[in-house]
């Protein structure tokens, strides 16, 4: 897989420091699983955080905090020490997609119970586990060959990871593994451009805005 | 160098060398060495607390996060691999995850190298494989070259627990400016790392 479209550094930075919305973080983590280049960037950011941590000022510790240095080594039982990386016993992909996404899928990618939105375009909303006050959506979208998503822009950020097939829009051609990192100011209209269905994972942190009159009628259909 | 009571000596100031931290963390992992843990704690806890309080946490919450973080450091030290990250980076990622768990009651989605779908990196050539120590020094040099307005935003994102939107509000600049400064900063750091 040769990936040509990567995570924007600003988005990756928010993922690394933990301030990126959960829906967007799932897409980022799924891309990271298949993209050594972006993993390297994430490591660079963590290295920087570690270096900056050692350059920060120090806060004075309370007596209770000082005591932790003594109590933790005697208080933690030997059997509670973690010597191996915890192994996941299930969920390893018979789903055909990386873990951060597979964890949230009800079935393998081939068996998703798609719901038709408009002819040629169907979706499947995925559950989110985090706090409900976070706005945003996470779903799979399937575009049939030659079909076009209605033109839309975003009130927030939209991350799209191509899982199968490909599409073309104003920003270029996006193939399996590519990630489109779109801001609120981008207007786009993806077209599935091969004989294969284009299946993507899409997360937003705010509702989409459809721009054409007929497209606006779709707003309630897309329900996001 | 350490004295018989276990404290560091032979250096001015309190800042430990990254190699000292790495060695102590490995001693905790391999030998459950409580003296090494005390040294790590003395080096890291006051800095972690500073960053938690600065990020807007109240004193009691910071104490909880600090406790949970340092417990995890003790319990998980056996997983630390000094060829992959420095001790301070490793501890930062633990503190960050503790903070996220508290904030959102969720597990942070992360790639898993055991996943059959995981794509590993092509093996590094001898030229690319530089030591962690060299890496650290190169990154530090590259960071030192960043303009202050870019550095400010990077520090705020790492330590103030603020989203880019909140940083934009705090600094009274557009969100697009926050994002573009981050992109510029990393573009510059990558370019520096290539020539250094």
Automatic annotation (TrEMBL), chain A:
Q: Which SUPFAM superfamilies match?
A: RmlC-like cupins
The protein's matches in Pfam families, at most eight in alphabetical order, are given as: Cupin_7, zf-HC2
**Segments forming domain ChrR-like cupin:** 107-205
- Which InterPro entries is this protein grouped with? Anti-sigma_ChrR, Anti_sigma_zinc_sf, ChrR-like_cupin_dom, RmlC-like_jellyroll, RmlC_Cupin_sf, Znf_put
Domain Putative zinc-finger, residue spans = 12-39
Which NCBIfam families does this UniProt record tie to the protein? Answer: anti_sig_ChrR
This protein's name: Uncharacterized protein
Q: What organism is recorded for this protein?
A: Sneathiella litorea
From TrEMBL, chain B:
Name assigned to this protein: Sigma-70 family RNA polymerase sigma factor
**Among its keywords, does the record have Transcription regulation?**
yes
Looking up PANTHER family in the UniProt record yields: RNA POLYMERASE ECF-TYPE SIGMA FACTO (PTHR43133), RNA POLYMERASE SIGMA FACTOR SIGZ (PTHR43133:SF62)
Renumbered residue ranges of the record's region Disordered: 104-133
- What are its GO biological-process terms? DNA-templated transcription initiation
- Record keywords: Sigma factor, Transcription, Transcription regulation
The record's annotation in NCBIfam families points to: sigma70-ECF
Span of domain RNA polymerase sigma factor 70 region 4 type: 136-186
Taxonomic lineage of this organism?
A: Bacteria, Pseudomonadati, Pseudomonadota, Alphaproteobacteria, Sneathiellales
Q: Which GO terms describe its molecular function?
A: DNA binding; sigma factor activity
Check the record and name the SUPFAM superfamilies matching this protein. Sigma2 domain of RNA polymerase sigma factors, Sigma3 and sigma4 domains of RNA polymerase sigma factors
Q: Which InterPro entries match?
A: RNA_pol_sigma-70-like, RNA_pol_sigma-70_dom, RNA_pol_sigma70_r2, RNA_pol_sigma70_r4_t2, RNA_pol_sigma_r2, RNA_pol_sigma_r3/r4-like, WH-like_DNA-bd_sf
Q: Does the keyword RNA-binding apply?
A: no
Task: Report which superkingdom the organism of origin falls in.
Answer: Bacteria
What family does the database annotate? Belongs to the sigma-70 factor family. ECF subfamily.
The RNA polymerase sigma-70 region domain covers 59-108
Q: Which organism is it from?
A: Sneathiella litorea
């Amino acid at each position: 897989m040769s990936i040509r479209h990567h995570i924007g550094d600003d988005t990756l930075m928010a993922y690394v420091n933990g301030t990126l919305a959960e829906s967007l973080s799932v897409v980022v983590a799924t891309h990271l699983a298949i993209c050594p280049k972006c993993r390297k960037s994430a490591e660079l950011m963590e290295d920087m955080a570690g270096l900056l941590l050692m350059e920060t000022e120090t806060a004075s510790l309370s007596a209770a905090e000082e005591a932790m240095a003594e109590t933790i080594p005697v208080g933690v039982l030997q059997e509670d020490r973690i010597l191996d990386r915890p192994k996941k016993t299930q969920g390893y992909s018979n789903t055909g997609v990386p873990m951060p996404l597979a964890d949230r899928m009800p079935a393998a990618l081939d068996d998703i119970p798609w719901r038709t939105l408009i002819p040629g375009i169907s979706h499947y909303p995925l559950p989110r586990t985090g706090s409900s006050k976070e706005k945003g959506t996470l779903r799979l979208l399937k575009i049939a060959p030659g079909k076009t998503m209605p033109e839309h822009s975003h009130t927030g950020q939209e991350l799209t990871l191509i899982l199968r097939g490909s599409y073309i829009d104003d920003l270029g051609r996006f193939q399996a593994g590519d990630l489109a990192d779109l801001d609120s100011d981008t207007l786009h209209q993806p077209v599935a451009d091969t004989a294969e269905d284009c299946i993507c994972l899409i997360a937003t942190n705010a509702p989409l805005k459809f721009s054409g009159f007929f497209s606006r009628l779709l707003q309630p259909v897309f329900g996001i | 160098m350490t004295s018989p009571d276990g404290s560091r000596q032979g250096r001015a100031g309190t800042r430990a060398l990254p190699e000292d931290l790495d060695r102590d963390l490995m001693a905790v992992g391999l030998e459950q060495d409580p003296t090494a843990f005390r040294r790590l704690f003395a080096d890291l806890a006051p800095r972690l607390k500073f960053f938690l309080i600065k990020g807007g946490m109240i004193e009691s919450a910071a104490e909880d996060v600090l406790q949970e973080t340092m417990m995890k450091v003790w319990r998980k030290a056996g997983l630390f691999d000094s060829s992959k990250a420095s001790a301070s980076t490793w501890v930062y990622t633990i503190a960050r995850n503790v903070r996220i768990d508290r904030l959102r009651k969720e597990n942070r989605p992360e790639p898993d190298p055991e996943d059959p779908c995981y794509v590993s990196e092509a093996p590094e050539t001898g030229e690319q494989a530089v030591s962690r120590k060299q890496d650290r020094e190169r990154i530090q040099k590259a960071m030192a070259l960043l303009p202050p307005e870019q550095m400010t935003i990077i520090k705020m994102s790492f330590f103030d627990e603020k989203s880019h939107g909140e940083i934009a509000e705090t600094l009274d600049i557009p969100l697009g400016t926050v994002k573009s400064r981050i992109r510029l900063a990393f573009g510059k750091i990558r370019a520096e790392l290539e020539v250094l």
